[in-house]
Amino acid sequence: MATKVSIGIDIGGTNSEFGIVNEAGKVLARGMINTPTKDNIKQFIEDLAKGIRQLMSQINDAEYAGIGIGAPNGNYYAGTIEHAPNLPFKGVVPFVELLKGQFPEMKKIVLTNDANAAALGEMIYGGAKGMKNFIMIAIGTGLGSGFVVNGELAYGSDGFAGELGHITVTAEGRECGCGQFGHLETYCSATGMVRTAFELLSHHNAKDSLLANKTFNQLTSKDIYDAAKQEDEIALTVFEITGDILGQALADAIHITSPQAIFLFGGPVAAGELLFKPIRESMESHLMPVFKNKVKLLPSQLRLGEAAILGASALVAK
Amino acid sequence: MATKVSIGIDIGGTNSEFGIVNEAGKVLARGMINTPTKDNIKQFIEDLAKGIRQLMSQINDAEYAGIGIGAPNGNYYAGTIEHAPNLPFKGVVPFVELLKGQFPEMKKIVLTNDANAAALGEMIYGGAKGMKNFIMIAIGTGLGSGFVVNGELAYGSDGFAGELGHITVTAEGRECGCGQFGHLETYCSATGMVRTAFELLSHHNAKDSLLANKTFNQLTSKDIYDAAKQEDEIALTVFEITGDILGQALADAIHITSPQAIFLFGGPVAAGELLFKPIRESMESHLMPVFKNKVKLLPSQLRLGEAAILGASALVAK
Fold first, then answer.
1. pLDDT value at residue A84
2. Per residue in B115-129, pLDDT tens?
3. Do residue A258 and residue B160 have CB atoms under 8 angstroms apart?
4. What residue of B is the nearest CA neighbor of A167?
């Protein structure tokens, strides 16, 4: 009997990964190519197709449900990637249409933004199985989110819903990659944590901090985590501030969609209670009574290295 | 042939209104009783039932789809009114169950919070016909909201979704009726506008303002509107500030659910461009590019006096 599988593709700023996933959420084969640094979409699609065909040749007797794609600024309805600041492709790329040219035999080719894909991955393969209302928060270079409402992913009127990273947390605050100011992801993301560390270093003139010997371009959220484990004051304060702001934003989101749980995903989530504790405290302190002590704050159950592929494949596996 | 109708009930802090509505959204008959000031739910249910029976006797040959109820802190799933600060009933009131005792013949008796009901009213009888994703904002004593996502009202995991009035707009800001601080409705509501007026009067020591001769308990948002029409500086600034904060909150909501339109409803909305202009400017200024100049900001198409009944009836008319 044929094995039922689907293909997941995750388009990232540096690399693009892809894999073949079975119904149980096991990645049977996976591959990767570099995302080009120049706007040569035709070549990229051909390279991607070649890589995927190679994987397909490794799986015998497979029945394909289709291809799911997670991409920054992915438009679910149009199947396009639109003005993605971290990708080299300019304007509106008809990604699904281009991929259909390479895989005419596939029944379904569907695209959405990466955090929406991760939310579907959590719902189908992860910790949100059976949940009708939950929120997925993906903390990386930026902060992405996917909102599941009444058992369905919220795509909104234009396919772009779920941009919690761009709600305003400080009017006239930090400059955001999108051009506006004070947005959540300028504080609560790997990048935001580095910005907070540098703000704190300058504010406290903290020459003895473990973080004082790296350049702005060198410092990572992992460095901050390592310093926090060694009780570095600046690093610990970065986690406090990040958690405090994220907790307030999550409370906002709870007031709007009243989820059963919020899942956190991404590199900085590895810090565990160092991050979860201040988030939880701040979140609860901003909630109106009817929502208090009700919403679970959980780490994603998807493995970090596989989540993007699983999530993308979940788009067609459902 | 029997006329298909449904019954709508709006439970308010002062009065409770009810009406019989036909499929076209016409209120065929309506009535009102005082909401009691003491916690006597049994008597209230009996009085309400009596009033409704009286209306029913006026309509010949009607076929009833059921009874819909809009109430503050209404829980859609449980059919209960829970800890409503502006109602005399303590704790959790099994409102739907009590009403079923009075109307055993009704196929459906459904309850939700008043702003959710208004959203359904807008979708079925008003300006949101055919829209799959929109937000209803009801500005009154507080600020209520209803979110329609993928064509369905978002009730959330517990029946309480849609509390945009309680997102945090200023950390450590004004005290909110719910016990927390800095929530949207402490600024952007009829009450919030009065609070802003008094803050401005005190800040500017504005003895010559038209608003300087009313007590805190006397002043209404209508007074502020009247003063603004006469170019009173304080009153005009109240509208600027209210619009500025509400616009930022609406941008937050857009980033999350990406609606096609946002409908504003309630007394202060009568101020028209005086309120809409600062909201629109602030909203657009906080949006990431992909959402800019896309989301319609519209006045509700429901008549102010009928909206609550229409909305409630829409709960069962759908």
1. 85
2. 999 999 999 999 999
3. yes
4. B252
Contact residues for B61 (Cβ-Cβ < 8 A; gap 6+) = B1, B2, B3
Q: Beta partners for A263?
A: A136, A298
Is there a contact between A168 and B248 if contact means CB atoms under 8 Å apart?
Answer: yes
CA distances from B49 to A126, A153, B143 (A): 49, 40, 29
Pairwise CB contact (< 8 Å): B289 & A83: yes
CB-CB contact of A142 with A164 (8 Å): no
The first and second tokens of residue B176, run together, are 């909110």
Contact B163/A253, CB-based, under 8 Å? no
How far, CA to CA in Å, does A18 sit from each of A97, A113, A186, A219? 18, 15, 29, 29
Contacts B174 to A, Cβ<8 Å: none
**Preferred mutation among B149, B164, B246, B262 to probe A, highest tally of A CBs within 10 A:** B149
Q: Which of B131, B133, B153, B163 would you mutate first to test chain A, the one with the most A CBs within 10 A?
A: B163
Closest chain A CA to residue B147: A256
CB A268 within 8 A of CB A139: yes
Is B178 in contact with A288 (CB distance < 8 Å)? Answer: yes
Q: Do B161 and A256 touch (CB under 8 A)?
A: yes
Q: How many helices (H) and strands (E) does chain A have?
A: 8, 13
CA distances from A113 to A110, A131, A144 (A): 11, 21, 9
How far is A194 from A200, CA to CA, in rounded Å?
10
Identify which of B155, B165, B257 has the shortest CB distance to residue A154. Answer: B257
Residue of B154, B165, B289 lying closest to A149 (CB–CB):
B154
Give pLDDT tens digits along chain A (318 positions): 788 999 999 998 889 999 999 999 999 999 999 999 888 999 999 999 999 999 999 999 999 999 999 998 899 999 999 988 779 998 999 999 999 999 999 999 999 998 999 999 999 999 999 999 999 999 998 999 999 999 999 999 999 999 999 999 998 899 998 899 999 999 999 999 999 999 999 999 999 999 999 999 999 999 999 999 999 999 999 999 999 999 999 999 999 999 999 999 999 999 999 999 999 999 999 999 999 999 999 999 998 778 889 999 999 986
The alpha carbon of residue B280 and the mean position of all alpha carbons in its chain are separated, in whole angstroms, by: 20
**Nearest C-alpha neighbor of A162 from the set A135, A129, A142, A126:** A135
Q: Residue A149: which of B149, B160, B163 has the nearest Cβ?
A: B149
DSSP assignment of B26-71, as one string? -EEEEEEEEPPSS--HHHHHHHHHHHHHHHHHHSSSEEEEEEEEE-
Single-letter residue type at B72: P
Closest residue on chain B to A135 (Cα): B256
ipTM: 0.89
pTM: 0.92
Contacts of B88 (CB under 8 A, 6+ apart): B35, B36, B37, B38, B39, B40
**Euclidean distance between CA atoms A27 and A313, whole angstroms:** 10
